[in-house]
Amino acid sequence: MMTTTLDKYRMSSRRRARKAAAANIRLDLQGLRALAVLAVIACSFWDNTFGGFVGIDVFFVLSGFLVTASLFRAGKHSKTMEVGHFLWGRVLRILPAATVVLLLTYAASLLVFSPGRTDQIGIDALLAAVFTANFHFAALGADPFAGPMSASPLQHYWALAVGEQFWLVWPLLVLTAAMIAAALAWSQARKTALVAATAGLLTIASLAWSLGVSASSPDWAYFSTFTRLWELSVGALLAAAAGVLARTPVLIKPVLSWAGLAIIVASVFVISESTAGYPGPWALLPVVGTALAIAAGIGDEPMLQPLLRNRVSTYIGDLAFSLFLVHWPVIVLLSPLMHRSIYFYATTVSLTVGLALLLHHLIEKPLRHVSSAKIRDGMRAMEHGLLHIERATKVALVAGLVLVTLALVSYAMGPDALAPAAGLTVVQAR
Question: Relative to the CA of 16, which of 173, 230, 295, 343 has its CA 20 to 30 Å away?
């Protein structure tokens, strides 16, 4: 019997799904990450003229869910060492790539901006490095919807700071709940219920605070961890309720997934810079949409969901963190040098994707699971000329270098190449 191309594709898809399941990776959530980062990038390119910034809210709910699910999988919450191991894993996942972008952004700022502007960016970088960028920009009175001609090239690090602050505190709360449950000889179900109750209380308290601060001090509300905590804790609640949600009928799962996507997409167009009361109450739209999409795949991923589960979406999801890190510095640094023409968009898009590919495959991915043993093995392999690089990585690196080259060519072809664009003087003042 002849094997058709369609049969080969189906077998490849099944192998891909099994590989993802073995690694505790949900393909639909990778696709959701892709949707979120593309919304954020599009919003940045078009100066917040629509609500693409809701992609940040999607990331927060996803983060709360994935972090809590990871803690539950560990199953050893009563051991401090396990929490330390978890936190170290988060450091390896976030810090190397984030630090590289901080250093490169500051170095590029020395070439583009005035000394006074550069000094301020240096301060931004230092505070971003210790994950306090959100409070820093709130204290400065930074406009969360400021365009690239006036905003810091590191302003997007506020979202990273909120996530890291959650990752530092939430595992300790889970550990405390586990220790209480162990002391009282509670079952695993009651232990999970205690974690769920903790997440629920955080959700209610933070949402109430967000509603109040969004009305009285919208800039602080946008950047503050306390007004955003409820979005992360909603994700934690979903992880705690996984046992119940896993029993969702198979036929209902795709309905929930598509309904969640529809709500997220609708929020992009319903919410804008001028929407009063953000994140509370309007952030409820993307949060609810994301919660439905996550819930749909607990237990088994939803069928009939090609938008999120296809190879393109999941690969963009893999690149999401690197794309998020590099897109805003590229836009801010090039805006005073180029007019908004086809050359600007060609340059920024090519450079963003090219740098993201290089950052992901050279820094983020290799260092995600690094260890002293792996470093020693790699050094020995290099000494003997036996270092193996996956074909996919080689292709990605070549593609990244080609895109960076195309960006340079596009920049050089622009009519304003190497000449300051009108408005540079605006950038010089913070």
Answer: 295
